[in-house]
Design a protein that fits this description.
single chain; Rossmann fold; 8-stranded mixed beta sheet; two-stranded antiparallel sheet; 14 helices; 12 strands
């Protein structure tokens, strides 16, 4: 998903720093103040403290080389430069975030929660946790050779980072609520997710999937993840189609290691797995060289079967290139739009410093075709 947009073979400096210095800044995965770690009787002495300062300096120099600022992108990169420093902090996001979300009721009907502003208004406990994190990051800022941007800027940065994590379950939840009609209270709504990789697996293992249920409070949900990606392999072993796993009292999960058209032939066609109410692909990479041919049989299948299908895209470039692919297949569009729950954690596209990307920025929904492929006539 979003990770596909980053350059291959290049390590992301904040990730490097965060991993290497986690035992100093965030023992047990929880960010602490420098006063707890440095000084007499504390875990680390002045030598490690100086090394930490130097590591921050080296990391920021690497980031400056990685992200050139131009006249066109400087207003967007202002936020990214702050986000990149905040990303350096291991445990920047509260370790108990999944637990907070799992215990939070939105307090208003899901259909009224239409964008991030609405979502944040429903999550005051998350904001309180981020305010604590802001205070800790402020204490560490003296180790950074940059002016402190202010508490509000750090809080907004943490909110952007949260959006980068929560965009996936919220987007999935909104796809289900928007495109699956009413069902009896005990009848599950089924979504098949195609081309899944690490972020979807992380969403499951971390517990963030509870936001899917928050968007859909009345029905059970059946999640089916299908992909040959290594991140999906463990899930496929844990909860194969023959033995789905109940991961919540209202959510059942199954996964399969392979391509979706093969999954359909093996399980759906033989009625071992239900037909989906909707199919979702997050960041399919249809525009990328050598990728489309793997997707084409699946796309043809979904169109022939008249399945409601949604794809999300991480940049306008990917979105517009993918529309050309869909147009060639004569898809019948339901919607083509910006995703109001796309990540607000914007990053610079490696091959073009003027282009920015973020998870789930755009989405396209379609069902069936506008042309009868047997007669090549328009379908009324």
């Amino acid at each position: 998903m979003g990770e596909k947009a980053e350059p291959t073979g290049i390590k992301y400096p904040p990730s490097e720093f965060s991993q290497k210095y986690s035992r100093i800044l965030a023992p047990n995965g929880v960010l602490v103040s420098p006063e707890k770690m440095f000084g007499e009787g504390k875990p680390f002495g002045p030598e490690i403290e100086e090394k930490t300062k130097l590591a921050f300096k080296v990391t920021l120099k690497k980031l400056d080389k990685l992200n050139p600022i131009t006249e066109q992108n400087k207003h967007i990169l202002k936020n990214e430069k702050i986000d990149q420093i905040v990303e350096c902090f291991p445990g920047a996001l509260p370790k108990n975030l999944p637990e907070i979300l799992g215990k939070t009721t939105w307090g208003r009907p899901p259909q009224e929660v239409k964008d991030w502003k609405d979502w944040w208004n429903c999550h005051k406990d998350v904001l309180k946790a981020l305010e604590i994190q802001t205070g800790l990051i402020k204490q560490w800022w003296k180790y950074i050779d940059r002016a402190y941007p202010g508490d509000e800027e750090i809080l907004e940065s943490l909110k952007r980072l949260i959006s980068g994590v929560i965009t996936h379950p919220l987007t999935i939840g909104k796809v289900i609520s928007t495109h699956v009609g009413k069902k009896g209270k005990d009848k599950a709504k089924s979504i098949h997710m195609v081309g899944t990789d690490r972020p979807e697996a992380t969403m499951i293992y971390s517990g963030f999937f509870t936001e899917i249920l928050a968007v859909n409070p009345t029905n059970p949900i059946k999640l089916t993840l299908v992909s040959p990606d290594p991140a999906n392999q463990q899930l496929a072993q844990d909860c194969s189609p023959s033995s789905p796993m109940l991961i919540h009292q209202r959510c059942k999960l199954t996964a399969w290691d392979g391509l979706y058209h093969d999954f359909w032939d093996r399980f759906v066609e033989k009625k071992k797995v239900e037909k989906p109410d909707v199919v979702l692909g997050i960041h399919p990479g249809l525009h990328a060289e050598g990728v489309y041919e793997f997707w084409e049989p699946t796309l043809e299948l979904l169109l022939d079967q008249n399945i409601v299908t949604v794809f999300t895209f991480f940049s306008r470039e990917e979105y517009e290139s993918s529309l050309l692919r869909f147009d060639d297949l004569f898809v019948k569009y339901i919607s083509k739009e910006s995703n109001l729950f796309g990540s607000q954690h914007l990053k610079q596209t490696p091959h073009n410093p003027e282009l920015m990307w973020a998870s789930n920025m755009y989405s396209v929904a379609f069902q069936g075709r506008t042309v009868d492929m047997k007669t090549l006539t328009l379908i009324e």
